[in-house]
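Readers outside the structure-tokenisation community will struggle with the description of the input data as it stands. For illustration, here is how one protein appears when written out as sequence plus structure tokens:
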Amino acid sequence: MAYQKGLIIRKIIHLSLGLIILILSCVLERNVLLYLITAGTIFSFLTFNYQKFHLLHKTTDASLGTLYYPVGILSSYLILYNLPLYYFHSSLMVLSLSDTLANFAGRIQKGNIWFRTFHDRKSIYGILAYSFSAGLILWLILSDYLTLSIPYILFAVLLAVILEIASMRGSDNFSIPVGLALFFLLSYHYEVNYLYLSAILVALAPACFLLFKFNILSRRGSFIAFLLGFYFAGIRGWEWLIPVLIFFLSSAAFTKLHHAIKGVGRKAPARNAWQVIANIIWAVTSSALFLLTHNEIFILFFIAFVAAVTADTWASEIGPLLNKRCFSLATMRTVPAGTNGGISFFGSVAALSGAAIISSLSYYLFFGSWQWDIIAILSLSAFLACFADSLLGAFAEDKMLRMDYFKKRNTLESITPNDLVNMIGSGTAFIFYLLLSWIFL
């Protein structure tokens, strides 16, 4: 009972602070309001662990919501500092009002349905209250020409709902205002097909849920996949998405096949968020750099990175299926197939095949032709990156496993030495591409 009372008080405080900031933003100069929000943020951090302010801060031991709240408002204000004030008002009220209504509506028990996203539980009533109020806030606050665009409001509401559902430990107090602020910033400077983006969000949500349901990805892994899918399909384009999609689907299929044959009836483990990130981080980085610079070299780096992780995954899954033993780079002897740092004939063929397929298809998608000398260099770069991954697996992975840091982080969602090896190994693809291009082109 005391917990419920404290939670209601904190939500009322959050709502009141949001309304106070809304009023102050209309009467104070922007720099003065910035100083006040910054001071409030510092105060929140300084008082977080003091017993006297326990009622203000503590919901559960795991929640950091009262720290995320001021940081989220401050970050949103900074992002939108040079934009019309109604953008900040919109993100502020969705956080303060809609999130509070969602919390209260979620406690209506009769007929309510609860579900879990990551750490937090969400309710159908809460999501409905949040969605309706967020849509109403955006429609009332945003300028007339924006409210006339139903796809714009629809996409903003869908984005706000996703930012709320995907929260963990109160992180929605940060993700909601910052996510909406970034959306407002981008929409202010770029023309976007919001109906198309809304369709992408609606299509990705059940697809990624099925990835979790069928044990292909973990809960957090499926959410990372959702973000990646939206980034590549909605922001970058299909030529960026298709190579990543081929890598992911083929890797999932080969993993399931490998485990079905070698797993002796056990289910294949779901890939977690860190495994997803390790495989795709360099591709995302290179695509973002191309977005900023429009330099075609980053397209080639993107192709090399995706080809490298495809080569590595194909080799890891197909090699042990077709070879009983492999050659260990660590001991220079034959060892059972699947040993870290091992290479095999069929694994090498699979790696080269995966690298060549991704390189040739991706090059055609981007440039509309096949330039075989560049495709050959991309394929070889990816293959050599796969070999570098094997070297790291042979000489570095076991040493990292003995480190105290990794001994303590043994949960299913923790980063592992294998993730770091994959990340570093695939990251060498662009080095090999530059080296081979310098030699042969």
In short: The longest strand covers residues 325-328. Residues 208 and 223 are 7 Å apart (CA to CA). Strands lie at 114-116, 121-123, 325-328, 334-336, 342-343.
